[in-house]
Amino acid sequence: MLEKLIDAAIGRExxxxxxxxxxxxxxxxxxxxxxxxxxxxxxxAGFGKYEGKVEYDISGxxxxxxxxxxxxHIESSQLTxxxxxxxxxxRGTTTIIADPHEITNVCGIAGAEYIWKASQNVPLEVKVMxxxxxxxxAFETSGATLSGADTEKYIGENFxxxxxxxxxxxxxxxxxxxxxxxxxxxxxxxxxxxxxxxxTSGNGLNAYIAAGIMTDHECVTxxxxxxxxxxxxxxxxxxxxxxRNVAVNASAVTPANMRRFLLCTxxxxxxxxxxxxxxxxxxxxxxxxxIKPADAIVIATLNSAECYRLYGKGAIAPGYDADIAxxxxxxxxxxxxxxxxxxxxxxxxxxxxxAEKYLPEAVRNTVNAKEVKADDFCLKLKGNRANVIRILKxxxxxxxxxxxxxxxxxxxxxxxxxxxxxxVVERHHKTGNIGIGLLEGYxxxxxxxxxxxxxxxxxxxxxxxNNEDMAAIVSELRxxxxxxxxxxxxxxxxxxxxxxxxxxxxxAETYIRQSExxxxxxxxxxxxxxxxxxxxxxxxxxxxxxEIKLTDRGLFDVNRxxxxxxxA
Amino acid sequence: MLEKLIDAAIGRExxxxxxxxxxxxxxxxxxxxxxxxxxxxxxxAGFGKYEGKVEYDISGxxxxxxxxxxxxHIESSQLTxxxxxxxxxxRGTTTIIADPHEITNVCGIAGAEYIWKASQNVPLEVKVMxxxxxxxxAFETSGATLSGADTEKYIGENFxxxxxxxxxxxxxxxxxxxxxxxxxxxxxxxxxxxxxxxxTSGNGLNAYIAAGIMTDHECVTxxxxxxxxxxxxxxxxxxxxxxRNVAVNASAVTPANMRRFLLCTxxxxxxxxxxxxxxxxxxxxxxxxxIKPADAIVIATLNSAECYRLYGKGAIAPGYDADIAxxxxxxxxxxxxxxxxxxxxxxxxxxxxxAEKYLPEAVRNTVNAKEVKADDFCLKLKGNRANVIRILKxxxxxxxxxxxxxxxxxxxxxxxxxxxxxxVVERHHKTGNIGIGLLEGYxxxxxxxxxxxxxxxxxxxxxxxNNEDMAAIVSELRxxxxxxxxxxxxxxxxxxxxxxxxxxxxxAETYIRQSExxxxxxxxxxxxxxxxxxxxxxxxxxxxxxEIKLTDRGLFDVNRxxxxxxxA
Lengths: 568, 568
What we know:
2 copies of one chain form a homodimer. The longest helix of chain A is centred in the C-terminal third of the chain and has 17 residues, at 508-524. In chain A, the strands form 7 sheets. In chain A, strands 21-20-25-24-27-26-28-29 form an 8-stranded mixed sheet, with helices on both faces. In chain A, strands 3-2-7-16-17-18-19 form a 7-stranded mixed sheet, with helices on one face. Chain A has a 5-stranded parallel sheet with strand order 8-9-10-11-12. The mean pLDDT of chain A is 96. The first copy, chain A, contains 17 helices and 32 strands. In chain A, strand 26 and strand 27 form a beta hairpin. Chain A is elongated. In chain A, helix 5 (148-154) runs parallel beside helix 7 (177-188) and helix 12 (279-288) runs antiparallel to helix 13. Chain A is an alpha/beta fold. At the A-B interface, helix 1, strand 5, helix 7, helix 8 and helix 9 of A face helix 1, strand 5, helix 7, helix 8 and helix 9 of B. Chains A, B: This is Adenine deaminase. Chains A, B: It comes from Candidatus Borkfalkia excrementavium. Chains A, B: Belongs to the metallo-dependent hydrolases superfamily. Adenine deaminase family. Chains A, B: Its cofactor is Mn(2+).
């Protein structure tokens, strides 16, 4: 193989593949350069003048190294890794750093292993991180727990690339023994450690970094991004579906600190991937925000390769992996062709590969909730003032508000108010836990809506204006093994997320069509279009984001960092 | 330890050491920044506002990450690693990538192991490369051979950091099986591979890089440096004693390609280190040549750390090793203090550590040459025209010239000519091999001079105007176990290089004084001051540098790449 590569590089033998007549971004010089790109045995033999057994004319186009998504939860697409690959490879992405945080919270290490094994069926290169925060907090019931000892056990596994985003910032700075164990295990194994430290700075940030945490993708101001980069962190510029931070952080990037910036999508749902793309979308935003096109490419390729120690990736240069994206231009970033290991895997928006889906038992039939009756959703108050969760548009934070509430027959009366009943039903261990609260501002009328995607423990979250329909939703979600369901006028519609209750085993087209139909039903029930009807619910159970959330164990005041009663 | 570091970083506990009131170069931003630097447990806890159990006032000074010499042969200093460390750490260097090419050509793997073990006695961090070219060519007799199989055997050893400079460029591009075996072994072990590819470009260079060779320190024009960097090589800007390439290559460095440049010294002798310094000297030249001071620091620190995967080195930032050099300014680079792992190891030009020397038997008594008589140096010619080596000032290349030579009594007559007799006497395996040739332009009269440093196989090289004194030199070098000797008017003076015939076990001061005295004796015998009298001889046996050289097997025409007769 090496010998063949040398022969091809020197021009003694024809290369396997040559991209002819185009230009390419040289990430080492920041220049757009002319020259044929010769590929042999999956590697780049060289650029210059070459002939190939197969030649692709890319005149008028610009080749760049295959894009690297430096941090992504595949589960947020609600697609399998196989379908995910088919959506993103035609956009120019060839490698992702995947943190299976969601599925691992449901299925434990088997979830991470599933993501890895399923990825072996597609040309997308998926580096799987070991989630560091399973469960994310001690205030909810997750499907699985990964302790410090588990981290020690799994961090050295072949399919584990590093330690996933370390969300437990207090655990680091207060030296929580389990957190310390996890960080020491990663250090001992010589693995990379991702971070997640919104709104940290100064000496607290120093401590977090000194603990061995290398990256952050939560910056929302250029000052925050600049400080983190100046302290040696790799800073992901994130362009997700809900969290779009590239534009705001672009001004933090300077020629001198540029090498510390990466691109990532974090969470992007299927419809967004289909309609707007993946890192190609992030690149469009980056360039529109003032980052020079060649610099944007360096950020999306070489920098991620360096950060994640992906030797041989991130450049079009001799000896590098022949992972290449060919764009029409560096403004609209329309992807013409994608090569992975020298093979053409996508062209003009279409993936050129098929994959049989890997669907192991371990990630299926994960809904293990007790049967519920309508009465289980009764909410008995002592008085007539209640702590209520107020949901905000375009936001995952909530507000705590106090409202007057009437009761009758051992339950609150919702009729004539803007309030809905919200419940989180434990679904992993049949504990029967149900947390019940009140939600304001969502707008649903005449039924209930619910799903098994509820960050980060992914219990059943259900919202409604009557107990019967809420119980019907839970029954339906139990029946279909997880997914999304809606009950309007007594009629149930649902969509199965049969993998861990998080992801659909359907193909992307089918899933997108079904989920959009379901969404329209929700809007028809009065849900404000300011919300993504299902996904906005899924963050109401996440007790690390202010100000007030609901878990299967009750109402949680994030500011006080403890449970509170509903009576105010 | 991690817990203590976190406490110090957050300011909950005093740091072990704090550098107060100074500035430092932030290699991630290219800026000169103010702030205390806190150190705990050998690592940097953070910068900002800190208090320490021990505090050093560095007001008016500038701290930078400890300098990293990206490629050096310690043997060229002719000092032990212990003495070498004492010379260079006060200049701000804390880590070196050491290629023990010379001593391994004499002693085999035991030579590399010696360099590593001796380095454990000093705070200097020495990463030892496995020499890839032992012997350097097939046209000479070295002390040892490292085959492809040996490389497979040793490359995974704990004390081996990577594969040393791959000088065998033809071996790569013509796919020599042994060369292939070595490169594949390094790739399989996931180790870095250094290069050495003077004057290569285009597709040949592509092939060399595609073979997995990552670096080059032989660029002598900015065009060559720029091409190599553009193809993803790390390019060492070299400032050695004889080869000073920083100034000429400085214009190749741009903001966009800057991260691919490193600094190295390659070969620097003791007197030069003492008088002019180490990387501090290279930094002075770099800045004088137009590289911005902060960029020069990035090149000398972060870039080398990234190239050589020295995670946790190369920056002053939380969690990084507390390897720090404090300079008076970024123009003269006078080093005020050097810290290694948080410990003050040098101050105001003086090393603050002592080290007992490690002197294993394996690297001593390495002169194993047959006894010689004056007659062994007779040179019988068939005719009266001889191929003669013409030595050039300030240069390691030579010219082939043809001269009329008289013979008498079965030997050439040197009297009345500018010619001297040059001999290379095999000294490793008692083969009795003696290569004899004629040298022009050196200037010695009335005696002989010789040494056991003769690149790269390090046989005895001896030069004289009469056979008796040449034989006396060889006898003396055998007696003292290797070194340098001079015979003037029948009187012998010598200096022992008792480690492999290459390095002195004496302290640096003593060695420098002795070697300068010996040099003066050589100049007193008429050697032109344009030559470093001994070291200029040591390159006359290196059959890879044009145009005509002498090995223990005879006269070698580098252009024809074969032996030639002396008769012309």
